[in-house]
Backbone:
């Protein structure tokens, strides 16, 4: 059946964001993937979201010209060029089945970094930290690889701050000396406290022994 210029569906087939994303990935072979909170939710990590009402996050490491039918239709998708990882490797993605459609998604470890990339204020920081608290079983080798390859100073500092804040068991297996953290301060939360260890501003109730109020 005709849906949109260049787009057809099988009779009685229900269309959803997952069918649109699957078509873009498998048929058009565009380098996009289910990302961040949306990927975590589909893998059972985040229970905060209802996919009937929330925007579904789709990322790409490069700038893309998306097909018009995808941007014109109300698929509930939000696209972003992510700066967490410039060149994704096969091990960074996982194939999920959503609404009987196969879609490529970021692994839990990459999705966590993508979630941190979207922190812009205190409320998003608290949301991310609450989810981070439950991440007791991340794979340290995957985390180490991502942190070494990432160019986002903000994301890497945030990840290490929260890792130390919650003292997850996998933290001891990370080699922070191999992770480039840049120099200078980074303002994450306006009017927050400056954490001396990672030189980022965090909500004042997250102050550790090494944090001072700005």
Residues:
């Amino acid at each position: 059946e005709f849906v949109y210029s260049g787009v057809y569906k099988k009779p009685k087939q229900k269309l959803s964001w997952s069918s649109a994303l699957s078509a873009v990935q498998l048929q058009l072979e565009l380098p996009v993937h289910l990302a961040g909170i949306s990927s975590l939710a589909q893998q059972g990590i985040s229970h905060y979201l209802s996919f009937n009402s929330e925007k579904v996050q789709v990322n790409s490491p490069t700038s893309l010209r998306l097909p018009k039918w995808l941007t014109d239709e109300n698929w509930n998708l939000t696209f972003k060029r992510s700066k967490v990882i410039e060149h994704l490797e096969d091990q960074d993605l996982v194939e999920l089945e959503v609404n009987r459609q196969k879609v490529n998604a970021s692994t839990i470890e990459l999705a966590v970094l993508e979630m941190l990339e979207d922190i812009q204020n205190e409320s998003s920081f608290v949301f991310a930290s609450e989810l981070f608290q439950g991440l007791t079983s991340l794979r340290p080798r995957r985390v180490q690889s991502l942190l070494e390859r990432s160019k986002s100073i903000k994301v890497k500092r945030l990840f290490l701050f929260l890792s130390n804040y919650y003292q997850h068991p996998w933290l001891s297996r990370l080699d922070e000396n191999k992770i480039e953290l840049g120099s200078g301060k980074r303002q994450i939360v306006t009017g927050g406290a400056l954490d001396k260890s990672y030189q980022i501003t965090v909500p004042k109730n997250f102050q550790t022994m090494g944090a001072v109020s700005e």
